[in-house]
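Standup notes
- DV: blocked on the single-chain target, sequence here:
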Amino acid sequence: MAETAPACEGAPDPEIWFPERGSDVAIEQEAHAKAACFRCDYRSPCLEFALATDQRYGIWGGTNHNQRVRILTRRRYDEAANAGSPR
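- DV (later): unblocked, structure below
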């Protein structure tokens, strides 16, 4: 079975992955980008890349910057909580 390309690769409108904040169409662009991400086989590695490299702009792995900050905060909280628990 051949691997498919990421949803964003070769997209007809690549700008949807980088909606301009405050624009009238930003919410719609973000929704379209996230919908494409949710169908993409590369969603998880894309998100992990964005988290590891502190991507502050754009939709990565179906998340916007604020969502990625919450994911990182939750992971750090979980790591700290688990650091003191015996294995």
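- Follow-up: The two ends are 40 Å apart (CA to CA).
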